[in-house]
Amino acid sequence: MYTSGTFPLPQDLENDRIKLVPYIPSFHSELFAELSKKYPETYKYIPWGHSEVQAAFDSETFRREHKWLLFAILDKTRPSDNSTASDGALAGTIAFIDCAPRNLSVELGAVLIFPPFQRTHVASNAVGLMLQYALNKPSEGGLGLRRVVWLANYLNEGSIRLAKRFQFQQEGLLRWHMVLPPNLDGYLAGNGKVLREEDPKPGCAGRDTALFTLTWDDWEGGAKENAAGVMSRTM
């Protein structure tokens, strides 16, 4: 059964390379904050600053109200950073956002991969495991959803490239979709749209968002096998 307006947590969401575990603030928050401060460039295209992200991740109320299922990504090929992540090193996060059991749809987001784990097997395997859980039939251990959404800053070539690698289809471009936070450490420079005079938020650039989806018929029509192939690659 679906729970708390979201979806049930899977028993096991892992393969031989990574493991996805529910993000538990008492276990993960301290190390996540430490890595966020060490690698602020992780938030280059994120519409929140890292302090806002941390507050949201740590807030059960936020996660419940926004219908999030948030996971910590553990890289099983690297030793644990601390005793709270004994299955591997904390590599980042990934989530189901805006879970909609009634419409059998979900957004795949909060894909934050820290730089030491970027351009490795981590992101592709995390996304692949989430897609398998979302789109596989219930008899295969999945939720049997009809639609998975992927939203990306239109300038974030890495995110768009990853979506296309899994055969997400672009449905459109949401113009002026978000207000970005004030420039933080220079990482937001050039990552938003220029504002007109007298804009109510002059220090916050705008963002166009590319909208991609992967549906059950895409999945059954070859995207499932493609995903397995993407996950099996070493890089």
From TrEMBL:
Pfam families documented for this protein: Acetyltransf_3
MF-aspect GO terms: protein N-terminal-serine acetyltransferase activity; protein-N-terminal-alanine acetyltransferase activity
Ranges of residues in domain N-acetyltransferase: 17-169
Stored InterPro entries: Acyl_CoA_acyltransferase, GNAT_dom, Ribosomal_N-acetyltransferase
Record-linked PANTHER family: FAMILY ACETYLTRANSFERASE, PUTATIVE-RELATED, RIBOSOMAL-PROTEIN-SERINE ACETYLTRANSFERASE
UniProt-recorded name of the protein: N-acetyltransferase domain-containing protein
